[in-house]
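Renewal narrative, Specific Aim 1. Our central claim is that a sequence can be written position by position from structural information alone. The example that follows is taken directly from our test logs and has not been curated for this report. It begins with the structure tokens describing the chain, in the order in which they were read.
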């Protein structure tokens, strides 16, 4: 099924987004990915603690899932850094960053 067909059926509609909306969605996506990484860590009977616990959770993934997870862990770590910048430097950073392009 095409996007045009979904539009015709009323199952999609056109939408203009904003940088703040994209930043909010990015933060939600990051939280979901971090939660999944936490599940993996807990399933192996570990828990990250203290300062930098998000980083440890993310960077532990290849140690648990194997080397194939290395590039995903690096990408998620890049997202972690970007999410921190959004929180501390303001909205709009992630929406314009080339490292986060799909």
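The sequence written for that structure reads:
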């Amino acid at each position: 099924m095409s996007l045009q067909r979904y539009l015709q059926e009323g199952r999609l509609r056109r939408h203009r987004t904003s940088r703040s909306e994209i930043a909010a969605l990015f933060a939600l996506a990051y939280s979901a990915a971090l939660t999944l990484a936490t599940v993996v860590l807990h399933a192996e009977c570990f828990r990250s603690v203290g300062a930098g616990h998000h980083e440890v959770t993310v960077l532990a993934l290849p140690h648990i899932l194997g080397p194939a997870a290395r590039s995903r862990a690096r990408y998620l770590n890049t997202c972690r850094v970007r999410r921190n910048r959004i929180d501390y430097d303001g909205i709009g950073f992630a929406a314009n960053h080339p490292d986060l392009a799909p």
